[in-house]
From TrEMBL:
<feature type="domain" description="Nucleotidyl transferase">
    <location>
        <begin position="2"/>
        <end position="229"/>
    </location>
</feature>
<dbReference type="Pfam" id="PF00483">
    <property type="entry name" value="NTP_transferase"/>
</dbReference>
<dbReference type="InterPro" id="IPR005835">
    <property type="entry name" value="NTP_transferase_dom"/>
</dbReference>
<protein>
    <submittedName>
        <fullName>Nucleotidyltransferase family protein</fullName>
    </submittedName>
</protein>
<keyword id="KW-0808">Transferase</keyword>
<dbReference type="InterPro" id="IPR029044">
    <property type="entry name" value="Nucleotide-diphossugar_trans"/>
</dbReference>
<dbReference type="GO" id="GO:0016740">
    <property type="term" value="F:transferase activity"/>
</dbReference>
<dbReference type="InterPro" id="IPR050486">
    <property type="entry name" value="Mannose-1P_guanyltransferase"/>
</dbReference>
Amino acid sequence: MKALLLAAGFGTRLKPLTDIWPKCLMPIGGVPLLEYWIDAVRLMGADRAIVNTHYMADVVDAFLARPKFEEFVHPVYEGELLGTAGTLRANREHYRNEAVVLVHADNWCVCDFRAFADYHRCNRPEGTVMTMMTFTTDTPESCGIIEQDGGGVVVGYQEKPSHPKSTHANAAVYILEPEVVKWVVERPDVSDFSTQVIPHFIGRIATWHNDGIHRDIGTPESLAVAQRDKVSRIADTDDAWLQVFHQHPVQRKVNQLVCF
């Protein structure tokens, strides 16, 4: 199984923090967000992670060039942003006939990632070709909202609805079978995953609910809330990149957010 981590966005709502640092590397508990995601897809069983880059690509590339990611992570620069489905299609040679973990790596997520992957491999309903992670949201108007049957299969989907039918939201973490990738590859006009791919596969999408933490860290306020989440992690004190990162001004600015 391969992983595709989407990390190319501008993080416009996080300004002025993203004027000096990319959103995908924002610190949470002193650790870059993307580092949590790389660890997560390893836990899911991926043997390689493709990371698309664009905004501040040189900073992200330096982060990914650390010895701990050698041979596991493969960065791919996008000169023009392609959209989720477009990026999936553009990198098809990396996964060919394998399942793909597809992640919007600018969200903050804590859960049992092994259980998510095991559900897809062993327990998802027959006939489904994708497993979507879901979470319960307090702001359904700003999310992709699902309707599901008694077996947890998606039977309806609304992207940022004015009148949401539930509070079960799409967490933008998926495991895709090769059939889904093939469908996207064969349709070069498809670029948006939520509005073009998901609707096509309604009735064939399994769901796995995250009862842990799932946060959009797209604003300074939501990033500050994420700093208060208790996450057990031992920092690598010999990591030269991490030592420099801890001295970067973005650390001080994020710490100041928490104090207000």
